[in-house]
Every structure is written in structure tokens, then in C-alpha cells.
Write a structure and sequence with these properties.
The protein has 285 residues and is of the alpha/beta class. The chain contains 10 helices and 12 strands. Strands 6-11-10-9-8-7 form a 6-stranded parallel β-sheet. It starts with 12 loop residues before the first helix and ends with a strand.
């Protein structure tokens, strides 16, 4: 899980370049036949306006789209990553060859509206638990091929990343426990196989929680616990392990859940229930 006291860092430049290259290839194919109607030497300028309240995210992908199409495009941002936006706020202005701007506008906006949507969703849940001990986590329920981008957007919205994938942390679930024979055996195998990685155990009952505590799991996920059982779990754990609440939480009870004293609340909706932010791109020749 990423620290909370550092500025969110975007994915490596190579990752962003690959994301954009893939997106441009599926849109341009053999070439933008409509943009070719515009004179080759035509120059244009314009701006992107946000039409609703949102949290901005996606600078790096937006810029990379036009860098790959024509590096003469100049973009000037009026708002920063993670900044709250208000309706009709100008977020950037730009100028460059008209063909490049026309060919890249949809792909650039797709990245901006999707990543801003993720950041906005994250900020929404972070605001709901503000002032409590709990921190909001994302999950692996991301758009295929855009995990690094959406995980970055989550951080821009003020939430934390859970794990990036199946390689950087161990999360022992029901089927792992069944295959290993017990929670204790699964945790022991994890410590032997990858002692450098954090180990988390998902539990469904207070009895399983006690087993995970005895096995000294770093974090314990309370899967679909009632509020009363979450409170019992917090008391029983007494800070011996970190506690993460997960399941069908619903917004109404989220703050009440955060008030129980759990360390984390993981929410898949941050990345999978996003609605694109409404941006408008206006060009002038």
C-alpha cells in the first residue's frame, strides 16, 4: 500500500507511452481519412473545459497522445493533477497542427475523462470517511490494460492502492486456505515462499479472524462482516494486525463502518463503477 505523505507519482514513461500507442493504433488504424481533408499546413488552437465538478487526472496521457502525433503541439495546463474542478472551468489550452489535434482529440479525451472519473470516484469515498481512522483502498477491479493508469488516478483522488497485481503482495482467500489445509498452513507457506512480501488473509467469521491473528498475518480482510462483527473484530484484534473491511458496503453505512476503527476499507467501485467526466474540447482554426 502506498504511503500517504508523498505526491502521487505517475507510472513510468514507458508505460504511458505504451498505453497511448495502443489507444492510437485502435483508433487511427491506417490513418485518419477525415483529418486529411484539412490542409496539411493548417494550424489550430483550442481548450478543454470541464462541464461538472470533478477531480482532474490524466495530464500525462493527454500530453503523450499529441506528442506521438506531432511534437509541435503545445499544451498549457491551467489545473494540476488531483485538483478539484468546477463546472465550466478551463483545464488546459493548446495549439498545433490542425490534423494532429483533430486526430488525437478523442483518444486524449478518453484518457482524461476516464482517469478523472476514477480520481473523482476515489475522492468521493475519501471525503465520506474524512476525520476517521480508516483509509480507502482500491482493488484489482480495473479496466484491462489500464491498471497502472487507474491505480495512479486512485492516488490522485486521495485513496490508497491495495496491491498492483498478484506479484507484489500475498492475499490468502478461501480457496487458498482449502488447498493449503488451514489458515496457519497458508500463512506459513507464504512466509517461506516470499518472506519479503506482506501477507493478508481474508476471513469470513470471527473464528477465522482468531486463526489469522494466531498466524500473525500482517493484514486481515473482514469479508462481508456485519457492523456489529466488525466492531467485535476491532476489539479482538487490538491493533495486532491491520484490519481491512470489504464487501457490499453501500455509501449510507460507509462512514459508520469507518468509525469502527478499521484501518482500511476496500472499494471496487472506485475503478469499476466510474462514469466518464464531461469534458468539452473546442478547436479554433
Amino acid at each position: 500500500m502506498c504511503p500517504t505523505n508523498v505526491r502521487p507519482q505517475p507510472p513510468a514513461a514507458e508505460q504511458i507511452q505504451a498505453d497511448v500507442t495502443r489507444a492510437l493504433e485502435e483508433d487511427l488504424g491506417t490513418g485518419d481519412v477525415t483529418a486529411e481533408l484539412v490542409p496539411r499546413n493548417a494550424w489550430a488552437q483550442g481548450q478543454v473545459i470541464c462541464r461538472e465538478q470533478a477531480v482532474l487526472c490524466g495530464h500525462h496521457w493527454f500530453d503523450e497522445v499529441f506528442r506521438q502525433l506531432d511534437d509541435r503541439v503545445e499544451i498549457h495546463w491551467a489545473a494540476g493533477e488531483g485538483q478539484r474542478l468546477t463546472p465550466d472551468q478551463t483545464v488546459c489550452t493548446f495549439a498545433g497542427p490542425a490534423r494532429a489535434l483533430l486526430s488525437g482529440e478523442r483518444t486524449a479525451l478518453n484518457f482524461l475523462q476516464t482517469l478523472s472519473a476514477t480520481a473523482t470516484q476515489a475522492r468521493h469515498f475519501v471525503d465520506l470517511v474524512a476525520g476517521t481512522h480508516a483509509r480507502i483502498l482500491d482493488t484489482r477491479k480495473t479496466l484491462p490494460g489500464l491498471r497502472a493508469a487507474q491505480k495512479y488516478a486512485t492516488r490522485c483522488g486521495g485513496a490508497l492502492n491495495h496491491r498492483q497485481g498478484l506479484y507484489d503482495a500475498i492475499l490468502i482467500k478461501e480457496n487458498h486456505i482449502l488447498a493449503c489445509g488451514s489458515i496457519a498452513a497458508a500463512v506459513a507457506a507464504a512466509r517461506e515462499r516470499a518472506p519479503e512480501l506482506p501477507v493478508e488473509v481474508e476471513v469470513e467469521t470471527l473464528q477465522e479472524l482468531e486463526q489469522a491473528l494466531a498466524a500473525e498475518a500482517d493484514t486481515i480482510m473482514l469479508d462481508n462482516f456485519s457492523l456489529a462483527d466488525v466492531e467485535r473484530a476491532v476489539a479482538l484484534t487490538a491493533r495486532r494486525s491491520k484490519l481491512e473491511a470489504s464487501g457490499n458496503l453501500g455509501e449510507q453505512g460507509l462512514r459508520e463502518l469507518a468509525g469502527t476503527g478499521v484501518d482500511y476499507i476496500s472499494i471496487g467501485a472506485i475503478t469499476k463503477h466510474v462514469r466518464a467526466v464531461d469534458y468539452s474540447l473546442r478547436l479554433r482554426l
